[in-house]
Design brief:
single chain; alpha/beta; six-stranded antiparallel sheet; Methionyl-tRNA Fmet Formyltransferase, Chain A, domain 2
């Protein structure tokens, strides 16, 4: 089949690789414009653009893929099917009507759970035990199309947003090509309507979502640390500076006594900084002061001379 691939984020990369290796033809990769990134705000291309260029696939970038110029370009590609993965824009009816067949979307959750921009983040933040991928036939509403296929996976206790995203993107790449082969070969495709009453949402993350509230239970904070990697990262304040918390574990030891939430109740070499929370204690194992490199707790304590009784704000 003649495919147009819409994708921007890293999550789309395994599917683009597998699709390029398949018998299907990618007429173009549609992605977002280059953006400023990093502390130096250097203009950087999306990862899908870099990969497509290395494979000789034409790239089309647009701030609004539903504008007349973009629609005209897409109509000229004589497309059988649109494949949309982590693209970052909603396709309107003019765009969705272009392919000879229809448009499909690969989403990183078990829809209708976690419709929206950050499904893997929120699955980890909420302490879910299961996740998965869903392929849907797209309509004009975000992640509300009819379901073609679902595959579930367990979320390991050590998983972060990064590792879960990698697992789901690899799984999605495999089942995507299988689904396209089935569509091309005339296999039976069943479209199942989503139960809107069961829908939940995974909104795009904001910087302030990372601020740690030490008045929450240790497990809740631990899950946010896992789920907010690599951005915005969980963070607190240390001597007026932003301090990212990159790795933690929940401590079962009944330490702390009358200590206040956010207070360092012990500093254990080879283990971490033990911080009191509203319920239980959190062992902070890896940290990073803004603008500095990430350190394990031992190295951080040596450099900053943090000690028992320090209160994180």
């Amino acid at each position: 089949m003649n495919i147009v691939f819409f994708g921007t984020a890293e999550f789309a990369i395994p599917s683009l690789i597998e699709l390029h290796k398949s018998r299907h033809k990618i007429s173009a990769v549609v992605t977002q414009p280059d953006r400023k990134k990093g502390r130096d705000l250097k203009i950087s291309p999306p990862p899908t653009k870099v990969l497509a260029a290395s494979k000789g696939i034409p790239v089309f970038q647009s701030n609004n893929v539903s504008d007349p110029a973009s629609v005209a370009y897409l109509r000229g590609l004589n497309t059988d099917l649109f494949v949309v993965i982590a693209f970052g824009q909603i396709l309107n009816k003019d765009v969705l009507s272009i392919p000879k067949l229809y448009s499909i979307n690969l989403h990183g959750s078990l829809l209708p759970k976690y419709r929206g921009a950050a499904p893997t983040n929120w699955a980890v933040i909420n302490g879910d035990r299961m996740s998965g991928i869903t392929i849907i036939k797209m309509n004009e509403r975000m992640d509300e199309g009819d379901i073609i296929l679902k595959k579930d996976v367990a979320i390991d206790a050590e998983d972060t947003n990064i590792t879960l995203s990698e697992t789901l993107s690899d799984l999605g790449a495999k089942v995507l090509v299988e689904t396209l082969d089935k569509i091309e070969n005339g296999g039976k495709i069943t479209f199942t309507k989503q139960d809107d009453q069961a829908a939940t949402y995974a909104p795009k993350l904001k910087k302030e979502d990372g601020l740690v509230d030490w008045n929450k239970p240790a497990l809740v904070i631990h899950n946010r640390v896992r789920g907010l990697l690599p951005w915005p990262s969980a963070y607190t304040h240390y001597d007026g500076n932003i301090l990212k918390i990159l790795k933690t574990e929940v401590s079962d030891e009944p330490l702390g006594g009358d200590a206040k939430a956010g207070e360092a109740i012990d500093v254990l070499k080879g283990k971490g900084i033990i911080v009191k929370t509203a319920s239980g204690n959190l062992v902070v194992q890896y940290l990073q002061l803004e603008g500095k490199r990430a350190l394990d707790a031992d190295a951080f304590v040596r450099g900053q001379r943090i000690s028992k009784g320090y209160k994180f704000s």
